[in-house]
Amino acid sequence: MEERWYIWPSVIFKLADRNFSDWLFNQNAATDRFEYGFKFDQFNVRGLNERLSAMAQFGFKRRFNFAYNIPYLNKAQTFGMGLGFSYSEFDQVDYSNVENKRLFIDADSIFGDDSERQIISNSMNSFLFFNYRESYYNTHSLNLVYSRTTIIDEVLQFNSEYLGQNQDVEQDYIGLSYRFRRDFRDRNNYPLKGFLIDARFTKIGLGIFKDIDQGNFRGLLAYYKPLKYNFNIASSFTAYTSYPKFQPYNNFEGLGFSNNLLKGYELYVIQGQHYVMHKTELKKELFSIEANLGRLMPLKQFRKVPFAAYFKVFFDHGYVQNNISDRSRISVSPLLSNRYIYSYGAGLDLVTFYDAVLRLEYSINALNETGFFINVKSGI
Predict the structure, then answer these.
(1) For the chain, first and last CA: distance in Å?
(2) pLDDT per residue over 59-74, tens digit each?
(3) What domains can be seen in the chain, in order of their start residue?
(4) C-alpha angle 203-206-212 in degrees, rounded to nearest 5
């Protein structure tokens, strides 16, 4: 056993798009859609397991973040809190969803190719949260956030409902959310045993700024079970519901981001006020090894390199309900909402340091589209 580092300076270099396939096919592998910068994490600040994080990011999205987390405020180590601030600038934004694919507008299209970098949207968020750890497995969280988003007038020419129905160019709100989490998994990023219950209620707009009045509930139940002969089965069920019927484009959610995604639909963003999703995987461990780099690696914390591979077959399915009017620019001619959608296929998961995961998957979806997709993080 080697003690982890407490100070983690790191370099940021990543795609701005939702996944590799989205960048490659929907954005034609555009070279201006990269994000780069620096990140600093200080763990165990003051020897009390506190965490300080700071980030400066440039490129497609310019972003600056600061956060401080104090996990224990009392001797019983049941109460904790944290706070943070972020500021982002954009010279390109997506303004509409046509046939479940996002359309983008950039500053060059508005001001001309010869103009200097122009900001067409920016956002600022600050938050304060409190945690109560009821037991080793159960955690309650309360999060208070202030958000401010602005756009230039020209964006309204493409979508007048980007921030609301009144051709708003500014949106302010205070939001409040409560989250309950019961986590019996053996590890976070690539669990093989246990279960997870995660439920969250969110209210956006508490009546102070009156720019938005929106609420939602999101629930997740995931189960992981080892079988004989190094087989493993994993299954998860996700449900989401929100109100009101009309929601500004900037706040309209759905399937397609991060791990909130059905396999085989990496090229699509399926927006809706309500959705359900069920994912199942049967996987077989091919091998699990630990290489020792010895003197080739001067830092002893990184000399032992774990590496595992899992072959899997999967079936995902779900339903997204979209009640936005056909006359709205928010969601135009959707192909995949208000219908049963599914996908199936096979893939290979590669797992290494700190449960970092690379997923290589071949899938077939409800449109009879086939594809090979590359993703990170566990699929369930």
Answers:
(1) 28
(2) 999 999 999 999 999 9
(3) 7-376 (2.40.160.50)
(4) 80
